[in-house]
Amino acid sequence: MLKLKTLAAAVAFLAASGAVAQEASAPECTDTRSATEILERKIREWKAGDLGRALAERDANRQLVLLVSDPQTVNAGTQSADYGKSRELAFAKAFLATQAAFVKARKETIETETASEFFNAAPSSAELSLDSAEEQGRLMRLGEKIFTLTEAALDKALREVGVSEDDIKRAEPSKKVQLFKDRIARTSVTKAVGAVAGVLPVQNFEATDCNNIGAVAVISVFSEKNLEFARDVRQGKPIMADKERASGQTLSAMVDAEIASNEVLDIYGLRKVHDQSGYPSLVSYGQWSFVSDGTTPRSREMKRKAAILQAESNAKAHIATYLGGTAQTALETFTDEAYEEFVKVTREGQEVASTAAVLEKQLQTMGARARVELTGMRELGTWTIEHPGAPGVTMVGSVVAWSPQFADAINQATGSKRRQAASDPVKSDAAPGQVDVRSSKVKNNAADF
Asked: Could you tell me which residue ranges the DUF6844 domain spans (predicted)?
């Protein structure tokens, strides 16, 4: 009997020791910062780093536009089965915010430049000269002449922005200025949205706090290089390689390494990179998630495959929206209602969030119009990773890429003489419950944009 009591005491002691050890391995989370506060500090650190400073300098010199989203809270907590899906939607919202900020600023710039182009030049002394018959009542005559010159300039401006002669004649002089403003607003909206393909994400961040709340943020860049590349890809134009930007590894090898290291979990959206030969290429990272608790192996695999299909669809949608965000598609898809919504929300004082809501609808329309089969698009890999900050949530992804060399390989195989790789290729020599903050891998330097 004594031996049994001794054995029971020993078992209890060991169990208690194990519990203490387990508690010791998971220290209490004491950081009082929210996930958004953690990201705000991370973004400040990024801005102080080499890439952040280089991009900020080029932004100041008007060589590109640097766009940093505010942190977006993930609606579902890290302990929720919906965290993975909410996380994907939060990344989409953060990127959309950078696009909306660009459209709003671009529209205002175009409006200012257009108005200045027509009205900055003052009337010349010859235009204001009076002959001898007009000398009497000089002040009144000058006033009439200035008004006539101003109205003539306004009529000319209205013609150049597409207002018909009949509409100009019908418009009262007092209403011509407003007519001009309205037409400039419509034109500037089309141009601004038609340049949104030049906005691409550079890096994204994710943080989770002690309260099991997550937040994400996206840093994007607009450049004319990005926009021109989108136009060339969509129109099937030959593309030149930049040998100085050759990566030293194939796109497939790059993605394989990212999947093997789990870095791929932190890369959201579309990236413009250079392949082993220096050709600019598109690599799109789509993600989704599923919860496998309480399921059979067969059921789990079915859920995983369904989630991967959704991730692949997301990856292709990134490319379609990028190629759709050009002036041609904007002109094809804008309606009077869309113009009115944009003009309303982009007036001074409106929040960027309002612009984002309208822009999202327009981009969906443009992306749907651009959903054509792009020759040379390949799936480079799929992956499945348990989210480190969300117990029980399994993230999956699909990586889809396009490059001029992929396109040419298909063209050659099908007997087409069309070529998009315009240069000779370059030979390659290489082949939970705790505060957490992660960022995506940097794929670019400031000179890429």
From this structure: 142-234
